């Protein structure tokens, strides 16, 4: 018999909300993490992006909240404004009908207004970026003596050189017996080692993707570096999906990509870390709503963004490491949906993709674009003693060339069309 959320002892109000949303069965990470969190154990949780990690900690945390106690009882730390707002919105949805408040706290917003909202709302849960939260703690504007649980989301980034110090300072200001939870798509040894400074006998959970997931096809295309933009354009035309995210390593390259794609009637926008909070929010909202089909971004800008319907990821530049490859690729195929992941590389960069495949255990297959299809390159490679090919490329499309479940959707209205 399969496990349900009711079997996990989630509180009745939360179960009601889950049933209204037709959510009955937990994902593997939820099934493994929720009981341990309800027990009060510290935990380090690794699960692929898009497998339900947010609910894996929100459901038990909100189930344990004392509605009679109008103090901050839980903290969630996240690296970006967008992720903070997403987590807070999900918590608000779960608390629908209950007189319990959630407050997002981010930098770039007037501190006085945030302090006023703290006093007025009396939130039981605060979701925050670590820098601004630490600022409020140092000013004694936020009390954490009643905090029972602290969650560090995107832990592999939050414990690096940029965020590690403020995260550590926040931990020092909570009580010694406060529950500490770290969640991430990847938990490298360095993160596990760094967490020992503030966790107590943590359970390590490494959860898999849900069974029956449609799967994500990982592929790469070899391109002349001078023709990469044209390769990208042809690829986006070929897959013809409603939403794609293109990752670049250097923001300086983006202007050329944006101008050429727009010139060829492939509307796209840039998600830029230097844009204002309002501009970034507008770009993400319009992308979610399908106003434009291609979002171009760097890793910093896109970290933690949850857009469930993204069908295609393109690594225009190779990811700097295997963990980043996993995070980027995890923007598609969320919650068991099908998805496509492509890397566009030079012939000299093949070793990078092969290394990622070995380190992640993901098969990443080379493909070529020919006659409107993604095909295996082997027919084009002349074997010793083989006769020259005289015919065209085979036109059959391999199954991996399109998401398994949604292949019939990509040519419907809302795609790129045939220009």
Automatic annotation (TrEMBL):
Residues 34-205 form the Helicase ATP-binding domain. The keyword Transport does not apply. Residues 370-419 are annotated as: Disordered. The keyword Cell division does not apply. Keywords: ATP-binding, Helicase, Hydrolase, Nucleotide-binding. It is an enzyme of class 3 (hydrolase). Residues 231-375 form the Helicase C-terminal domain. Its EC number is 3.6.4.-. Residues 3-31 form the DEAD-box RNA helicase Q domain. InterPro entries: DEAD/DEAH_box_helicase_dom, DEAD/DEAH_RhlB, DEAD_box_RNA_helicases, Helicase_ATP-bd, Helicase_C-like, P-loop_NTPase, RNA-helicase_DEAD-box_CS, RNA_helicase_DEAD_Q_motif. Residues 410-419 have a biased composition (Basic residues). GO terms for molecular function: helicase activity; hydrolase activity. A motif (Q motif) lies at residues 3-31. Residues 370-379, 396-409 have a biased composition (Basic and acidic residues). Belongs to the DEAD box helicase family. PANTHER family: ATP-DEPENDENT RNA HELICASE YFML-RELATED (PTHR47963:SF7), DEAD-BOX ATP-DEPENDENT RNA HELICASE 47, MITOCHONDRIAL (PTHR47963). This is DEAD/DEAH box helicase.
């Amino acid at each position: 018999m399969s496990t349900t959320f009711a079997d996990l002892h989630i509180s009745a109000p939360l179960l009601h909300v889950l049933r209204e949303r037709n959510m009955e069965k937990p994902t593997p990470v939820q099934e493994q993490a929720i009981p341990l969190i309800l027990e009060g154990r510290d935990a380090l949780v690794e699960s692929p992006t898009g497998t339900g990690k947010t609910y894996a900690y929100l459901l038990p945390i909100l189930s344990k909240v004392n509605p009679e106690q109008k103090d901050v009882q839980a903290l969630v730390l996240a690296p970006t404004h967008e992720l903070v707002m997403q987590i807070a919105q999900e918590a608000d949805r779960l608390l629908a009908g209950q007189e319990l408040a959630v407050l997002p706290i981010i930098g770039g917003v007037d501190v006085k207004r945030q302090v006023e909202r703290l006093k007025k709302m009396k939130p039981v849960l605060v979701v925050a970026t670590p820098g601004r939260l630490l600022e409020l703690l140092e000013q004694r504007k936020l009390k954490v003596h009643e905090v029972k649980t602290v969650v560090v989301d995107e832990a592999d980034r939050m414990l690096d050189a940029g965020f590690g110090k403020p995260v550590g300072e926040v931990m020092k200001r909570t009580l010694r017996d406060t529950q500490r939870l770290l969640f991430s798509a990847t938990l490298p040894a360095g993160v596990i080692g760094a967490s020992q400074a503030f966790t107590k006998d943590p359970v390590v959970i490494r959860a898999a993707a849900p069974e029956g997931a449609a799967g994500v096809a990982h592929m790469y295309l070899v391109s002349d570096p001078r023709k990469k933009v044209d390769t990208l354009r042809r690829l986006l035309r070929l897959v013809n999906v409603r939403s794609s995210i293109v990752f670049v390593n250097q923001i300086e390259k983006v202007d050329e990509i944006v101008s050429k794609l727009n010139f060829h009637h492939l509307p796209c926008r840039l998600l830029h870390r230097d844009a204002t909070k309002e501009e970034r929010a507008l770009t993400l909202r319009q992308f979610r709503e399908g106003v434009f089909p291609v979002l171009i971004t760097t890793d910093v800008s896109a970290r933690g963004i949850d857009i469930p319907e993204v069908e295609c990821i393109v690594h225009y530049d190779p990811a700097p490491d295997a963990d980043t490859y996993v995070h980027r690729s995890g923007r598609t195929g969320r919650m068991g949906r099908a998805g496509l992941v492509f890397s566009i590389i030079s012939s000299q960069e093949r070793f990078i993709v092969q290394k990622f495949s070995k380190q992640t255990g993901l098969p990443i297959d080379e493909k070529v674009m020919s006659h409107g299809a993604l095909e295996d390159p082997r027919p084009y490679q002349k074997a010793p003693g083989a006769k020259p090919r005289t015919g065209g490329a085979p036109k059959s499309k391999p199954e991996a060339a399109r998401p398994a479940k949604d292949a019939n959707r990509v040519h419907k209205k809302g795609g790129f069309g045939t220009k």
